[in-house]
Design goal:
By secondary structure, this protein is mainly α. The protein contains five helices and four strands. α2 packs parallel to α4 and α3 runs antiparallel to α4.
Length: about 150
């Protein structure tokens, strides 16, 4: 599944580079790729430090920096895309470094993978929380345990 994506992206990148090279010239195309890489690396450094500071602030406040960790993942992927030469990957990488679009990417990742993340299986750790029965005002027992299936 992922191999065809790499092949298609590589072919698209080559097509775009050749098309841009024909339009503005080879040297200008290379210069443009280098400029996007420099701008991207500057943004990568800035956004990485900003996310690190937000994570430290959250931990200092006694909170889990879950969102900041997701931001870090998007920033890491964006950095890898910026290291890949080409205009399409640079564009996606730059979008991942912008705070407003990064939130969009995180939302899409979580909405597509929420079922996988929070899905319970028949084997593994099972936890049933206690709850109050509002009709009878009785408290149910809490069952907490572990289960392994061989």
């Amino acid at each position: 599944m992922i191999f065809p994506i790499f092949v298609v992206m590589t072919l698209l990148e080559i097509y775009v580079l050749v098309s841009v090279g024909e339009s503005i010239g080879g040297f200008s195309t290379i210069l443009l790729v280098v400029i996007t890489a420099l701008v991207g690396s500057t943004l990568l450094k800035q956004q990485g430090w900003s996310t690190m500071a937000k994570a430290q602030q959250a931990m200092a406040n006694g909170q889990t920096p879950a969102f900041e960790m997701m931001e870090g993942v998007v920033i890491l992927i964006s950095g890898v895309l910026l290291l890949t030469p080409g205009f399409i990957t640079d564009g996606i990488g730059l979008l991942g470094l912008m705070p407003f679009s990064r939130v969009y990417f995180i939302d899409k990742i979580l909405s597509k993978n929420a079922e996988k993340i929070f899905q319970q299986k028949n084997s593994g750790f099972i936890h049933t929380a206690s709850s109050n029965d509002k009709k009878d005002n009785k408290k149910k027992d809490t069952i907490d345990g572990e289960f392994w299936e061989d």
